[in-house]
Structure formats: C-alpha cells, structure tokens
Amino acid sequence: MSGFNHYGHNGSSQRQSNNSLQIPKNWMNCPSIATHSVADSFVTFKTPLDYKYDNKIAIMKRFNPQMVFSHMYSYQQSIGLWIDLTNTTRYYSQFEIEDMGCAYVKIPCVGHGDLPNRQVFTALMVLTGQDF
C-alpha cells in the first residue's frame, strides 16, 4: 500500500503522534457555525478538525471541513473563498479545501483573546473588498 492518504498527499511527511494532536482549548463547547452571516457575505465557524482527530472526538461532536461545505450546500450556497485565520496548519489540510473547488488563503492570527493587528485587517480588506 502506498504512503498516500485519501487526499493524495504523502502521509509520512504529515504524520503526527497522537499526543501532539491536541484539541484547541474550549473547542468542544464552541458553536460549530454561526447562525447569521456577516455582511451577507461571510460565514463564520470554529476551526474544523480533520480525520486525524476523529479518535479524540465523539461522533456527534466532530466538525470537519467537509461539514462546513455540507452545511452551506444545505442552504443551496457554495463557498468560493476560505480564509483561514488560524496561526497553525495542524488542524486540517488546505488541500482538502482546495479539493472542494474552493480558493484557500491563510492570514495567520495570534488568537486566544488577542485582537487582530492592522496588517490582518488590511489583508482582509484587500482580499474581500470590504471595509471593516
């Protein structure tokens, strides 16, 4: 059997020990997807965790990238741009997003109670054409 996972990427370079796959603090109690869009253009959601975390999360509590797309499809909406504001790449693969036909952009933010800096706001304004 080859060393490629179901996204076609070599798993050996992405393999992590079970101990290094920690669920983000307060992730379990955070709502998965906001009930209202922002400026009729943006859908906010907690960081999805891909299949690597499945053995740490009960089935009913799981929230992965595919679920974000499924949620939007249920409203007959598609996602054209995924803006990742996390400061890490360990929670899911950008290739999973791109494989869904969605553009992916990463703007790393510190998070955990810190406000985004001016560069983050500028990048979002340029990327989205919105004035925040």
Which range does the strand content fall in?
A: 5-15%
Helicity level:
10-25%
Which structural class matches the secondary elements?
A: alpha+beta
Summed up, the domain count is 1
CATH superfamily: Protein tyrosine phosphatase superfamily
Main CATH class: Alpha Beta
Q: Biggest sheet: strands, sense, closure?
A: 2 strands, parallel
InterPro entries: mRNA_Capping_Enz/RNA_Phosphat, Prot-tyrosine_phosphatase-like
Protein name: ACYPI010111 protein
GO molecular function, one term: mRNA guanylyltransferase activity
Structure description:
- β1 (81-84), α3 (94-98) and β2 (103-106) form a beta-alpha-beta unit.
- A two-stranded parallel sheet has the order 1-2.
- With 132 residues, it is α+β, with helices and mostly antiparallel strands.
- The protein has a single domain, classed as Protein-Tyrosine Phosphatase, Chain A, CATH 3.90.190.10.
- The chain is 23% helix and 6% strand.
- This is ACYPI010111 protein.
Q: Quick summary of this structure?
A:
The chain has 132 residues and is an alpha+beta fold. It is built from four helices and two strands; from the N terminus they run ααβαβα.
Tag the structure with descriptive keywords:
132 residues, alpha+beta, single chain, disordered N terminus
Please give the structural blueprint.
Blueprint (H helix, E strand, L loop, with lengths): L10 H4 L50 H10 L6 E4 L9 H5 L4 E4 L11 H11 L4
Parallel strand pairs: 1-2
